[in-house]
Write a structure and sequence with these properties.
Layout: H1 7-13, H2 60-83, H3 87-117
Helix pairs in contact: 1-3, 2-3
Length: 130
């Protein structure tokens, strides 16, 4: 399920969706907001162009919205039902958790978005850039 060739492998390892070899993001996750979503232009292994068309990753906003709503609901249930916080404390917890996890959800939404459109190709050999 998490092995090479599955979408989950590409998503959680931040690898190219076509070859699962090249890195998708230029930099590891950090709190430097200028580097959070910086991508390579092409895969360093199979030369897949990540920005397939202008504004391709605008669609990732919808994925990010879904991830954020799921996160909000999860945090609310944990804080209100399981821990027993008040509504105000639960909303404060949601705000804090969402701010802390924003870099992760931004990156995750982009890699999920490209994985919707690009599938794994086990026969794709490495093509070096000239």
């Amino acid at each position: 399920m998490f092995g090479k060739g599955s979408k989950l492998y590409s998503i959680f390892k931040s690898k190219c969706p076509r070859c699962h070899e090249g890195d998708f993001f230029k930099y590891p996750i950090s709190l430097n907001f200028k580097r959070i979503t910086k991508l390579h232009d092409n895969c360093t292994h199979c030369n897949l162009k990540y920005m397939m068309e202008p504004s391709f990753f605008f669609g990732a906003m919808y994925v990010n919205y879904g991830l954020s709503v799921a996160l909000f609901i999860g945090v609310f249930i944990i804080s209100k039902v399981l821990i027993g916080l008040t509504i105000l404390q639960s909303f404060i917890a949601i705000i804090i958790i969402s701010l802390l996890l924003t870099p992760i959800t931004l990156r995750l939404s982009r890699i999920i978005w490209i994985n919707i459109f690009v599938g794994y190709d086990k026969d794709k050999k490495g093509i070096k850039n000239d």
